[in-house]
Description:
The structure is a homodimer.
Chain A: H1 19-32, H2 37-45, H3 90-110, H4 114-143, H5 150-168, H6 176-199, H7 201-227, H8 238-243, H9 252-278
Helix pairs in contact in A: 1-2, 3-7, 4-5, 4-6, 4-7, 6-7, 7-9
The complex binds fe (ii) ion (4 copies).
Amino acid sequence: GGDAVPGVWGMRMMSTSSVAATEEAAKEEAKKAGAEKKEVVVNSYWGIEQSKKLVREDGTEWKWSCFRPWETYTADTSIDLTKHHVPKTLLDKIAYWTVKSLRFPTDIFFQRRYGCRAMMLETVAAVPGMVGGMLLHLRSLRRFEQSGGWIRTLLEEAENERMHLMTFMEVAKPRWYERALVITVQGVFFNAYFLGYLLSPKFAHRVVGYLEEEAIHSYTEFLKDLEAGKIDNVPAPAIAVDYWRLPADATLKDVVTVVRADEAHHRDVNHFASDIHYQGMELKQTPAPIGYH
Amino acid sequence: GGDAVPGVWGMRMMSTSSVAATEEAAKEEAKKAGAEKKEVVVNSYWGIEQSKKLVREDGTEWKWSCFRPWETYTADTSIDLTKHHVPKTLLDKIAYWTVKSLRFPTDIFFQRRYGCRAMMLETVAAVPGMVGGMLLHLRSLRRFEQSGGWIRTLLEEAENERMHLMTFMEVAKPRWYERALVITVQGVFFNAYFLGYLLSPKFAHRVVGYLEEEAIHSYTEFLKDLEAGKIDNVPAPAIAVDYWRLPADATLKDVVTVVRADEAHHRDVNHFASDIHYQGMELKQTPAPIGYH
Lengths: 293, 293
Ligand SMILES: [Fe+2]
Ligand SMILES: [Fe+2]
Ligand SMILES: [Fe+2]
Ligand SMILES: [Fe+2]
Protein backbone atom coordinates (compact mmCIF):
# COMPACT_ATOMS: atom_id res chain seq x y z
CA GLY A 1 0.00 0.00 0.00
CA GLY A 2 2.61 2.53 -0.98
CA ASP A 3 1.29 6.05 -0.88
CA ALA A 4 4.49 7.27 -2.42
CA VAL A 5 4.59 10.95 -3.13
CA PRO A 6 7.10 11.19 -5.96
CA GLY A 7 6.23 14.82 -6.54
CA VAL A 8 7.90 16.06 -3.40
CA TRP A 9 11.30 15.16 -4.81
CA GLY A 10 12.23 18.18 -6.81
CA MET A 11 14.68 16.69 -9.25
CA ARG A 12 15.08 14.31 -12.13
CA MET A 13 18.08 12.42 -13.44
CA MET A 14 18.07 14.38 -16.63
CA SER A 15 16.17 17.40 -17.66
CA THR A 16 16.23 18.77 -21.16
CA SER A 17 17.29 22.27 -20.27
CA SER A 18 20.12 21.33 -17.96
CA VAL A 19 22.05 19.07 -20.30
CA ALA A 20 24.43 21.70 -21.62
CA ALA A 21 25.07 23.19 -18.20
CA THR A 22 25.67 19.74 -16.80
CA GLU A 23 28.17 18.76 -19.43
CA GLU A 24 30.07 21.95 -18.73
CA ALA A 25 30.01 21.13 -15.04
CA ALA A 26 31.18 17.60 -15.75
CA LYS A 27 34.12 18.94 -17.74
CA GLU A 28 35.04 21.33 -14.94
CA GLU A 29 34.93 18.49 -12.49
CA ALA A 30 37.07 16.34 -14.75
CA LYS A 31 39.76 18.98 -14.72
CA LYS A 32 39.73 19.16 -10.94
CA ALA A 33 39.53 15.47 -10.12
CA GLY A 34 42.35 13.94 -12.10
CA ALA A 35 41.67 10.42 -10.88
CA GLU A 36 38.01 10.40 -11.92
CA LYS A 37 38.74 12.05 -15.23
CA LYS A 38 38.28 9.05 -17.50
CA GLU A 39 34.84 8.11 -16.22
CA VAL A 40 33.48 11.60 -16.24
CA VAL A 41 34.62 12.15 -19.80
CA VAL A 42 32.83 9.01 -20.96
CA ASN A 43 29.65 10.08 -19.18
CA SER A 44 29.82 13.51 -20.62
CA TYR A 45 30.42 12.12 -24.10
CA TRP A 46 27.22 10.12 -23.98
CA GLY A 47 25.34 13.00 -22.38
CA ILE A 48 24.63 10.93 -19.33
CA GLU A 49 24.56 12.88 -16.13
CA GLN A 50 26.02 11.42 -12.96
CA SER A 51 23.29 10.63 -10.52
CA LYS A 52 25.30 12.08 -7.63
CA LYS A 53 23.22 15.22 -7.88
CA LEU A 54 20.29 13.44 -6.25
CA VAL A 55 19.24 14.79 -2.88
CA ARG A 56 16.81 13.78 -0.15
CA GLU A 57 13.79 15.85 0.87
CA ASP A 58 15.95 17.54 3.50
CA GLY A 59 18.58 18.47 0.92
CA THR A 60 21.22 15.93 2.01
CA GLU A 61 22.95 13.81 -0.60
CA TRP A 62 21.17 10.67 -1.79
CA LYS A 63 23.65 7.84 -1.40
CA TRP A 64 21.92 4.97 -3.23
CA SER A 65 22.28 4.29 -6.89
CA CYS A 66 20.27 1.05 -6.80
CA PHE A 67 17.00 2.90 -6.12
CA ARG A 68 15.82 6.46 -6.38
CA PRO A 69 14.10 8.83 -3.95
CA TRP A 70 10.80 8.65 -5.86
CA GLU A 71 10.76 4.86 -5.54
CA THR A 72 10.58 5.01 -1.75
CA TYR A 73 7.25 4.41 -0.03
CA THR A 74 5.48 4.03 3.26
CA ALA A 75 4.50 0.40 3.81
CA ASP A 76 0.85 -0.34 4.49
CA THR A 77 1.25 -2.27 7.74
CA SER A 78 -2.51 -2.34 8.27
CA ILE A 79 -2.79 -5.16 5.75
CA ASP A 80 -4.44 -8.38 6.98
CA LEU A 81 -1.61 -10.78 7.78
CA THR A 82 -3.82 -13.79 8.41
CA LYS A 83 -5.53 -14.03 5.04
CA HIS A 84 -5.12 -17.54 3.65
CA HIS A 85 -6.26 -19.15 0.43
CA VAL A 86 -7.85 -22.46 1.43
CA PRO A 87 -6.69 -25.00 -1.16
CA LYS A 88 -9.75 -26.47 -2.85
CA THR A 89 -8.67 -27.98 -6.15
CA LEU A 90 -6.09 -30.74 -6.50
CA LEU A 91 -3.67 -28.25 -8.09
CA ASP A 92 -4.06 -25.90 -5.11
CA LYS A 93 -3.41 -28.76 -2.73
CA ILE A 94 -0.26 -29.76 -4.62
CA ALA A 95 0.91 -26.13 -4.49
CA TYR A 96 0.14 -25.93 -0.78
CA TRP A 97 1.91 -29.17 0.14
CA THR A 98 4.88 -28.39 -2.10
CA VAL A 99 5.46 -25.22 -0.11
CA LYS A 100 4.73 -26.88 3.24
CA SER A 101 7.19 -29.68 2.53
CA LEU A 102 9.89 -27.12 1.65
CA ARG A 103 9.53 -25.71 5.14
CA PHE A 104 10.94 -28.71 6.97
CA PRO A 105 14.46 -28.64 5.42
CA THR A 106 14.49 -24.84 5.72
CA ASP A 107 13.56 -24.96 9.41
CA ILE A 108 16.25 -27.55 10.08
CA PHE A 109 18.93 -25.66 8.14
CA PHE A 110 18.32 -22.25 9.71
CA GLN A 111 16.88 -23.19 13.12
CA ARG A 112 16.04 -19.79 14.68
CA ARG A 113 18.70 -17.75 12.85
CA TYR A 114 16.01 -15.55 11.31
CA GLY A 115 18.28 -12.81 10.03
CA CYS A 116 20.28 -15.29 8.03
CA ARG A 117 17.13 -17.13 6.98
CA ALA A 118 15.54 -13.90 5.72
CA MET A 119 18.64 -12.99 3.71
CA MET A 120 18.89 -16.43 2.11
CA LEU A 121 15.20 -16.73 1.30
CA GLU A 122 15.03 -13.30 -0.32
CA THR A 123 17.55 -14.47 -2.92
CA VAL A 124 14.92 -17.05 -3.91
CA ALA A 125 11.89 -14.79 -3.46
CA ALA A 126 13.17 -12.36 -6.09
CA VAL A 127 13.13 -15.01 -8.83
CA PRO A 128 9.42 -15.64 -9.59
CA GLY A 129 8.53 -11.99 -10.29
CA MET A 130 11.43 -11.69 -12.73
CA VAL A 131 10.60 -14.95 -14.51
CA GLY A 132 6.88 -14.16 -14.74
CA GLY A 133 7.51 -10.58 -15.84
CA MET A 134 9.99 -11.69 -18.50
CA LEU A 135 7.72 -14.40 -19.90
CA LEU A 136 4.74 -12.02 -20.07
CA HIS A 137 6.98 -9.40 -21.73
CA LEU A 138 8.10 -11.85 -24.41
CA ARG A 139 4.51 -13.00 -24.93
CA SER A 140 3.32 -9.42 -25.22
CA LEU A 141 5.88 -8.88 -28.00
CA ARG A 142 5.08 -12.14 -29.82
CA ARG A 143 1.33 -11.62 -29.74
CA PHE A 144 1.33 -7.86 -30.36
CA GLU A 145 -0.86 -7.28 -27.32
CA GLN A 146 -0.61 -5.40 -24.04
CA SER A 147 -0.21 -7.09 -20.69
CA GLY A 148 -2.75 -5.20 -18.62
CA GLY A 149 0.09 -3.92 -16.47
CA TRP A 150 1.08 -7.38 -15.20
CA ILE A 151 4.61 -7.21 -16.60
CA ARG A 152 5.33 -4.16 -14.49
CA THR A 153 3.56 -5.57 -11.43
CA LEU A 154 5.63 -8.75 -11.47
CA LEU A 155 8.89 -6.89 -12.14
CA GLU A 156 8.06 -4.53 -9.28
CA GLU A 157 7.62 -7.53 -7.02
CA ALA A 158 11.05 -8.83 -8.07
CA GLU A 159 12.60 -5.45 -7.37
CA ASN A 160 10.89 -5.21 -4.01
CA GLU A 161 12.27 -8.63 -3.04
CA ARG A 162 15.71 -7.58 -4.19
CA MET A 163 15.46 -4.56 -1.88
CA HIS A 164 14.58 -6.94 0.97
CA LEU A 165 17.81 -8.77 0.21
CA MET A 166 19.85 -5.55 0.07
CA THR A 167 18.42 -4.71 3.50
CA PHE A 168 19.05 -8.06 5.21
CA MET A 169 22.56 -8.20 3.75
CA GLU A 170 23.36 -5.30 6.08
CA VAL A 171 22.44 -7.26 9.21
CA ALA A 172 23.65 -10.75 8.23
CA LYS A 173 26.74 -11.55 6.21
CA PRO A 174 26.59 -14.70 4.06
CA ARG A 175 29.25 -17.35 4.66
CA TRP A 176 30.99 -19.10 1.77
CA TYR A 177 28.82 -22.25 1.93
CA GLU A 178 25.72 -20.06 2.02
CA ARG A 179 26.88 -18.30 -1.11
CA ALA A 180 27.43 -21.67 -2.77
CA LEU A 181 23.96 -22.80 -1.68
CA VAL A 182 22.35 -19.68 -3.14
CA ILE A 183 23.96 -20.29 -6.52
CA THR A 184 22.75 -23.91 -6.59
CA VAL A 185 19.24 -23.08 -5.39
CA GLN A 186 18.91 -20.24 -7.92
CA GLY A 187 20.00 -22.51 -10.75
CA VAL A 188 17.38 -25.10 -9.86
CA PHE A 189 14.56 -22.75 -8.86
CA PHE A 190 14.94 -20.36 -11.81
CA ASN A 191 14.59 -23.20 -14.30
CA ALA A 192 11.84 -24.97 -12.36
CA TYR A 193 9.79 -21.78 -12.06
CA PHE A 194 10.43 -20.89 -15.70
CA LEU A 195 9.10 -24.26 -16.84
CA GLY A 196 6.30 -24.22 -14.28
CA TYR A 197 5.17 -20.79 -15.41
CA LEU A 198 5.07 -21.91 -19.03
CA LEU A 199 3.09 -25.07 -18.17
CA SER A 200 0.71 -23.58 -15.61
CA PRO A 201 0.83 -19.94 -14.52
CA LYS A 202 -2.20 -20.77 -12.36
CA PHE A 203 -0.10 -23.23 -10.36
CA ALA A 204 3.03 -21.04 -10.38
CA HIS A 205 1.25 -18.00 -8.91
CA ARG A 206 -0.49 -20.22 -6.32
CA VAL A 207 2.86 -21.62 -5.20
CA VAL A 208 4.20 -18.08 -4.79
CA GLY A 209 1.04 -17.12 -2.88
CA TYR A 210 1.70 -19.92 -0.41
CA LEU A 211 5.43 -19.10 -0.24
CA GLU A 212 4.44 -15.58 0.76
CA GLU A 213 2.12 -16.94 3.46
CA GLU A 214 5.11 -18.85 4.85
CA ALA A 215 7.25 -15.72 4.59
CA ILE A 216 4.70 -13.81 6.68
CA HIS A 217 4.83 -16.60 9.26
CA SER A 218 8.61 -16.66 9.43
CA TYR A 219 8.83 -12.85 9.75
CA THR A 220 6.29 -13.09 12.59
CA GLU A 221 8.57 -15.58 14.34
CA PHE A 222 11.49 -13.23 13.68
CA LEU A 223 9.53 -10.41 15.36
CA LYS A 224 8.69 -12.63 18.37
CA ASP A 225 12.40 -13.36 18.91
CA LEU A 226 13.21 -9.67 18.53
CA GLU A 227 10.55 -8.76 21.09
CA ALA A 228 11.74 -11.50 23.47
CA GLY A 229 15.27 -10.12 23.21
CA LYS A 230 16.58 -13.38 21.71
CA ILE A 231 17.79 -11.42 18.68
CA ASP A 232 19.43 -8.01 19.06
CA ASN A 233 17.11 -5.22 17.97
CA VAL A 234 19.89 -3.36 16.16
CA PRO A 235 19.32 -0.01 14.44
CA ALA A 236 17.68 -0.30 11.00
CA PRO A 237 20.19 -0.29 8.11
CA ALA A 238 20.39 3.09 6.37
CA ILE A 239 19.11 1.60 3.11
CA ALA A 240 15.93 0.43 4.88
CA VAL A 241 15.34 3.82 6.48
CA ASP A 242 15.45 5.44 3.05
CA TYR A 243 13.52 2.78 1.14
CA TRP A 244 10.52 2.57 3.50
CA ARG A 245 10.74 6.17 4.73
CA LEU A 246 11.33 5.01 8.30
CA PRO A 247 12.22 7.41 11.12
CA ALA A 248 15.95 7.91 11.65
CA ASP A 249 15.86 5.93 14.92
CA ALA A 250 14.05 2.92 13.40
CA THR A 251 15.21 -0.55 14.45
CA LEU A 252 15.38 -4.01 12.94
CA LYS A 253 11.90 -4.63 14.39
CA ASP A 254 10.49 -1.82 12.24
CA VAL A 255 12.26 -3.22 9.20
CA VAL A 256 10.89 -6.73 9.71
CA THR A 257 7.41 -5.25 10.19
CA VAL A 258 7.42 -3.40 6.87
CA VAL A 259 9.02 -6.32 5.02
CA ARG A 260 6.27 -8.57 6.37
CA ALA A 261 3.67 -6.11 5.07
CA ASP A 262 5.34 -6.31 1.64
CA GLU A 263 5.09 -10.11 1.73
CA ALA A 264 1.38 -9.84 2.51
CA HIS A 265 0.98 -7.68 -0.57
CA HIS A 266 2.86 -10.21 -2.69
CA ARG A 267 0.58 -12.94 -1.29
CA ASP A 268 -2.47 -10.97 -2.45
CA VAL A 269 -1.06 -10.26 -5.88
CA ASN A 270 -0.11 -13.88 -6.55
CA HIS A 271 -3.26 -15.53 -5.22
CA PHE A 272 -5.21 -12.94 -7.20
CA ALA A 273 -3.23 -13.78 -10.35
CA SER A 274 -3.89 -17.48 -9.80
CA ASP A 275 -7.61 -16.77 -9.24
CA ILE A 276 -7.76 -14.91 -12.56
CA HIS A 277 -6.38 -17.99 -14.32
CA TYR A 278 -8.85 -20.18 -12.41
CA GLN A 279 -11.64 -18.06 -13.87
CA GLY A 280 -10.37 -19.09 -17.29
CA MET A 281 -9.01 -15.64 -18.07
CA GLU A 282 -5.56 -14.43 -18.98
CA LEU A 283 -3.92 -11.91 -16.67
CA LYS A 284 -4.11 -9.13 -19.26
CA GLN A 285 -7.91 -9.22 -19.08
CA THR A 286 -7.81 -7.85 -15.53
CA PRO A 287 -5.89 -4.65 -14.79
CA ALA A 288 -2.83 -5.38 -12.64
CA PRO A 289 -2.27 -3.87 -9.20
CA ILE A 290 0.76 -1.75 -10.14
CA GLY A 291 2.37 -0.13 -7.13
CA TYR A 292 0.61 -2.50 -4.71
CA HIS A 293 3.41 -3.22 -2.28
CA GLY B 1 15.30 13.04 -21.23
CA GLY B 2 11.95 12.60 -19.60
CA ASP B 3 11.09 15.44 -17.29
CA ALA B 4 8.11 13.53 -16.02
CA VAL B 5 6.25 15.23 -13.22
CA PRO B 6 4.65 12.34 -11.37
CA GLY B 7 3.51 14.64 -8.60
CA VAL B 8 0.82 16.30 -10.68
CA TRP B 9 -1.21 13.10 -10.80
CA GLY B 10 -3.17 13.23 -7.64
CA MET B 11 -3.89 9.56 -7.13
CA ARG B 12 -2.29 6.23 -6.38
CA MET B 13 -3.49 2.71 -7.04
CA MET B 14 -3.88 2.00 -3.40
CA SER B 15 -3.69 4.29 -0.45
CA THR B 16 -3.71 3.05 3.10
CA SER B 17 -6.60 5.17 4.29
CA SER B 18 -8.94 4.40 1.43
CA VAL B 19 -8.82 0.61 1.56
CA ALA B 20 -11.92 0.12 3.69
CA ALA B 21 -13.93 2.68 1.72
CA THR B 22 -12.82 1.10 -1.52
CA GLU B 23 -13.81 -2.40 -0.53
CA GLU B 24 -17.22 -1.09 0.45
CA ALA B 25 -17.48 0.64 -2.93
CA ALA B 26 -16.42 -2.55 -4.68
CA LYS B 27 -19.15 -4.49 -2.90
CA GLU B 28 -21.73 -1.86 -3.81
CA GLU B 29 -20.62 -2.06 -7.41
CA ALA B 30 -20.74 -5.84 -7.33
CA LYS B 31 -24.40 -5.68 -6.33
CA LYS B 32 -25.22 -3.32 -9.18
CA ALA B 33 -23.27 -4.95 -11.97
CA GLY B 34 -24.40 -8.55 -11.92
CA ALA B 35 -22.27 -9.56 -14.88
CA GLU B 36 -19.03 -8.30 -13.43
CA LYS B 37 -19.80 -9.63 -9.98
CA LYS B 38 -17.41 -12.55 -9.93
CA GLU B 39 -14.29 -10.55 -10.81
CA VAL B 40 -15.04 -7.74 -8.44
CA VAL B 41 -15.55 -10.17 -5.58
CA VAL B 42 -12.17 -11.78 -6.21
CA ASN B 43 -10.47 -8.38 -6.33
CA SER B 44 -12.16 -7.25 -3.20
CA TYR B 45 -11.23 -10.48 -1.41
CA TRP B 46 -7.54 -9.89 -2.08
CA GLY B 47 -7.86 -6.23 -1.20
CA ILE B 48 -6.81 -5.25 -4.68
CA GLU B 49 -8.44 -2.16 -6.01
CA GLN B 50 -9.52 -1.95 -9.64
CA SER B 51 -7.38 0.48 -11.51
CA LYS B 52 -10.42 1.99 -13.26
CA LYS B 53 -10.35 4.84 -10.78
CA LEU B 54 -7.32 6.33 -12.53
CA VAL B 55 -7.87 9.69 -14.13
CA ARG B 56 -5.91 12.04 -16.34
CA GLU B 57 -4.75 15.49 -15.30
CA ASP B 58 -7.96 16.91 -16.80
CA GLY B 59 -10.10 14.50 -14.77
CA THR B 60 -11.11 12.22 -17.67
CA GLU B 61 -10.85 8.48 -17.25
CA TRP B 62 -7.45 6.86 -17.82
CA LYS B 63 -8.02 4.07 -20.32
CA TRP B 64 -4.67 2.22 -20.25
CA SER B 65 -3.84 -0.56 -17.87
CA CYS B 66 -0.46 -1.33 -19.45
CA PHE B 67 1.05 1.93 -18.23
CA ARG B 68 0.15 4.57 -15.66
CA PRO B 69 -0.21 8.35 -15.81
CA TRP B 70 2.95 8.87 -13.76
CA GLU B 71 4.97 6.84 -16.26
CA THR B 72 4.26 9.28 -19.08
CA TYR B 73 6.94 11.75 -20.11
CA THR B 74 7.93 14.46 -22.53
CA ALA B 75 10.57 13.18 -24.91
CA ASP B 76 13.82 15.11 -25.13
CA THR B 77 13.88 15.69 -28.89
CA SER B 78 16.89 18.01 -28.60
CA ILE B 79 19.16 14.98 -28.25
CA ASP B 80 22.01 14.71 -30.76
CA LEU B 81 20.85 12.20 -33.40
CA THR B 82 24.16 11.99 -35.23
CA LYS B 83 26.37 10.78 -32.39
CA HIS B 84 28.22 7.65 -33.46
CA HIS B 85 30.67 5.41 -31.69
CA VAL B 86 33.55 4.90 -34.11
CA PRO B 87 34.54 1.22 -33.85
CA LYS B 88 38.15 1.01 -32.77
CA THR B 89 38.78 -2.43 -31.31
CA LEU B 90 38.25 -5.67 -33.20
CA LEU B 91 35.24 -6.46 -30.96
CA ASP B 92 33.67 -3.09 -31.81
CA LYS B 93 34.21 -3.73 -35.50
CA ILE B 94 32.58 -7.15 -35.26
CA ALA B 95 29.64 -5.55 -33.43
CA TYR B 96 29.39 -2.81 -36.05
CA TRP B 97 29.52 -5.14 -39.05
CA THR B 98 27.14 -7.63 -37.46
CA VAL B 99 24.54 -4.88 -37.24
CA LYS B 100 25.35 -3.48 -40.69
CA SER B 101 25.03 -6.90 -42.29
CA LEU B 102 21.62 -7.36 -40.65
CA ARG B 103 20.43 -4.25 -42.44
CA PHE B 104 20.56 -5.72 -45.95
CA PRO B 105 17.98 -8.50 -45.43
CA THR B 106 15.83 -6.11 -43.39
CA ASP B 107 15.90 -3.46 -46.16
CA ILE B 108 14.98 -6.07 -48.75
CA PHE B 109 12.18 -7.55 -46.67
CA PHE B 110 10.47 -4.27 -45.74
CA GLN B 111 11.49 -2.01 -48.65
CA ARG B 112 10.00 1.36 -47.71
CA ARG B 113 7.09 0.05 -45.61
CA TYR B 114 8.40 1.90 -42.55
CA GLY B 115 5.31 1.51 -40.38
CA CYS B 116 5.44 -2.22 -40.73
CA ARG B 117 9.20 -2.23 -40.33
CA ALA B 118 9.00 -0.20 -37.12
CA MET B 119 6.39 -2.53 -35.66
CA MET B 120 8.38 -5.66 -36.47
CA LEU B 121 11.71 -4.31 -35.28
CA GLU B 122 10.30 -3.14 -31.96
CA THR B 123 9.42 -6.74 -31.11
CA VAL B 124 13.15 -7.44 -31.36
CA ALA B 125 14.30 -4.18 -29.75
CA ALA B 126 12.47 -5.00 -26.52
CA VAL B 127 14.49 -8.18 -25.95
CA PRO B 128 18.01 -6.97 -24.97
CA GLY B 129 16.90 -4.76 -22.08
CA MET B 130 14.85 -7.59 -20.60
CA VAL B 131 17.66 -10.13 -20.97
CA GLY B 132 20.30 -7.78 -19.57
CA GLY B 133 18.07 -6.66 -16.70
CA MET B 134 17.20 -10.23 -15.80
CA LEU B 135 20.81 -11.43 -15.87
CA LEU B 136 21.97 -8.51 -13.71
CA HIS B 137 19.06 -9.14 -11.32
CA LEU B 138 20.03 -12.80 -10.91
CA ARG B 139 23.68 -11.85 -10.46
CA SER B 140 22.77 -9.24 -7.86
CA LEU B 141 20.95 -11.97 -5.89
CA ARG B 142 23.74 -14.53 -6.25
CA ARG B 143 26.51 -12.14 -5.23
CA PHE B 144 24.58 -10.27 -2.53
CA GLU B 145 25.43 -6.95 -4.11
CA GLN B 146 23.54 -4.03 -5.59
CA SER B 147 23.46 -3.27 -9.29
CA GLY B 148 24.07 0.47 -9.28
CA GLY B 149 20.62 0.97 -10.78
CA TRP B 150 21.45 -0.87 -14.01
CA ILE B 151 18.76 -3.52 -13.54
CA ARG B 152 16.08 -0.85 -13.52
CA THR B 153 17.68 1.10 -16.38
CA LEU B 154 17.72 -1.95 -18.66
CA LEU B 155 14.20 -3.01 -17.70
CA GLU B 156 13.00 0.54 -18.35
CA GLU B 157 14.54 0.32 -21.81
CA ALA B 158 12.67 -2.92 -22.44
CA GLU B 159 9.42 -1.34 -21.30
CA ASN B 160 10.01 1.72 -23.43
CA GLU B 161 10.56 -0.48 -26.50
CA ARG B 162 7.39 -2.42 -25.67
CA MET B 163 5.51 0.88 -25.64
CA HIS B 164 6.94 1.63 -29.09
CA LEU B 165 5.46 -1.66 -30.24
CA MET B 166 2.07 -0.93 -28.63
CA THR B 167 2.08 2.37 -30.52
CA PHE B 168 3.04 1.07 -33.96
CA MET B 169 0.55 -1.81 -33.63
CA GLU B 170 -2.12 0.88 -33.89
CA VAL B 171 -0.93 2.06 -37.30
CA ALA B 172 0.18 -1.25 -38.85
CA LYS B 173 -1.49 -4.61 -38.38
CA PRO B 174 0.77 -7.66 -38.54
CA ARG B 175 -0.08 -10.33 -41.14
CA TRP B 176 0.06 -14.03 -40.28
CA TYR B 177 3.49 -14.62 -41.82
CA GLU B 178 4.82 -11.58 -39.98
CA ARG B 179 3.54 -13.02 -36.70
CA ALA B 180 5.26 -16.30 -37.51
CA LEU B 181 8.47 -14.45 -38.34
CA VAL B 182 8.39 -12.58 -35.01
CA ILE B 183 8.10 -15.83 -33.08
CA THR B 184 11.06 -17.35 -34.92
CA VAL B 185 13.21 -14.25 -34.65
CA GLN B 186 12.45 -13.88 -30.93
CA GLY B 187 13.37 -17.51 -30.28
CA VAL B 188 16.73 -17.08 -32.00
CA PHE B 189 17.54 -13.57 -30.80
CA PHE B 190 16.54 -14.11 -27.16
CA ASN B 191 18.87 -17.07 -26.84
CA ALA B 192 21.67 -15.48 -28.83
CA TYR B 193 21.55 -12.30 -26.76
CA PHE B 194 21.27 -14.28 -23.53
CA LEU B 195 24.43 -16.24 -24.37
CA GLY B 196 26.17 -13.17 -25.79
CA TYR B 197 25.47 -11.19 -22.63
CA LEU B 198 26.89 -13.95 -20.47
CA LEU B 199 30.02 -14.24 -22.61
CA SER B 200 30.66 -10.54 -23.24
CA PRO B 201 28.36 -7.80 -21.94
CA LYS B 202 30.84 -5.37 -23.51
CA PHE B 203 30.04 -6.78 -26.95
CA ALA B 204 26.33 -7.17 -26.27
CA HIS B 205 25.82 -3.54 -25.25
CA ARG B 206 27.92 -2.37 -28.21
CA VAL B 207 25.73 -4.35 -30.61
CA VAL B 208 22.62 -2.74 -29.10
CA GLY B 209 24.28 0.67 -29.35
CA TYR B 210 24.77 0.12 -33.10
CA LEU B 211 21.27 -1.32 -33.50
CA GLU B 212 19.94 1.91 -31.99
CA GLU B 213 22.04 3.95 -34.42
CA GLU B 214 20.37 2.02 -37.25
CA ALA B 215 16.96 2.57 -35.63
CA ILE B 216 17.58 6.33 -35.61
CA HIS B 217 18.47 6.12 -39.30
CA SER B 218 15.38 4.15 -40.23
CA TYR B 219 13.07 6.47 -38.27
CA THR B 220 14.70 9.40 -40.09
CA GLU B 221 13.84 7.71 -43.42
CA PHE B 222 10.32 7.13 -42.09
CA LEU B 223 10.05 10.88 -41.34
CA LYS B 224 11.32 11.78 -44.82
CA ASP B 225 8.60 9.67 -46.43
CA LEU B 226 6.00 11.20 -44.12
CA GLU B 227 7.15 14.69 -45.04
CA ALA B 228 7.19 13.85 -48.75
CA GLY B 229 3.63 12.57 -48.45
CA LYS B 230 4.64 9.04 -49.47
CA ILE B 231 3.20 7.76 -46.21
CA ASP B 232 -0.07 9.09 -44.80
CA ASN B 233 0.51 11.36 -41.84
CA VAL B 234 -2.41 9.90 -39.89
CA PRO B 235 -3.42 11.18 -36.43
CA ALA B 236 -1.25 9.86 -33.60
CA PRO B 237 -2.70 6.77 -31.85
CA ALA B 238 -4.35 7.64 -28.52
CA ILE B 239 -1.84 5.53 -26.61
CA ALA B 240 1.04 7.60 -28.04
CA VAL B 241 -0.65 10.89 -27.15
CA ASP B 242 -0.94 9.76 -23.55
CA TYR B 243 2.48 8.11 -23.23
CA TRP B 244 4.55 11.00 -24.61
CA ARG B 245 2.17 13.76 -23.45
CA LEU B 246 1.61 14.85 -27.05
CA PRO B 247 -1.00 17.47 -28.00
CA ALA B 248 -4.42 16.05 -28.88
CA ASP B 249 -3.93 16.85 -32.58
CA ALA B 250 -0.52 15.16 -32.81
CA THR B 251 0.21 13.09 -35.92
CA LEU B 252 2.26 10.05 -36.84
CA LYS B 253 5.13 12.42 -37.62
CA ASP B 254 5.20 13.60 -34.00
CA VAL B 255 5.14 10.00 -32.84
CA VAL B 256 8.06 8.97 -35.03
CA THR B 257 9.99 12.02 -33.82
CA VAL B 258 9.65 11.13 -30.14
CA VAL B 259 10.31 7.44 -30.76
CA ARG B 260 13.50 8.40 -32.58
CA ALA B 261 14.55 10.51 -29.56
CA ASP B 262 13.99 7.45 -27.36
CA GLU B 263 16.24 5.39 -29.63
CA ALA B 264 18.97 8.02 -29.34
CA HIS B 265 18.74 7.69 -25.56
CA HIS B 266 19.01 3.91 -25.82
CA ARG B 267 22.07 4.34 -28.05
CA ASP B 268 23.73 6.49 -25.37
CA VAL B 269 22.88 4.11 -22.55
CA ASN B 270 24.20 1.05 -24.37
CA HIS B 271 27.40 2.57 -25.74
CA PHE B 272 27.99 4.00 -22.26
CA ALA B 273 27.47 0.54 -20.72
CA SER B 274 29.89 -0.96 -23.21
CA ASP B 275 32.44 1.79 -22.47
CA ILE B 276 32.22 1.01 -18.74
CA HIS B 277 33.12 -2.59 -19.49
CA TYR B 278 35.94 -1.42 -21.77
CA GLN B 279 37.35 0.47 -18.81
CA GLY B 280 37.59 -2.85 -17.00
CA MET B 281 34.76 -2.00 -14.64
CA GLU B 282 31.47 -3.70 -13.91
CA LEU B 283 28.29 -1.73 -14.54
CA LYS B 284 27.45 -1.50 -10.83
CA GLN B 285 30.55 0.62 -10.27
CA THR B 286 29.00 3.48 -12.25
CA PRO B 287 25.54 4.79 -11.30
CA ALA B 288 23.03 3.96 -14.03
CA PRO B 289 21.05 6.59 -15.93
CA ILE B 290 17.62 5.64 -14.55
CA GLY B 291 14.82 7.52 -16.26
CA TYR B 292 17.05 8.48 -19.20
CA HIS B 293 14.65 7.98 -22.08
FE1 LIG C 1 10.73 -10.61 0.60
FE1 LIG D 1 7.53 -11.74 -1.03
FE1 LIG E 1 12.12 1.34 -30.20
FE1 LIG F 1 15.68 1.44 -28.95
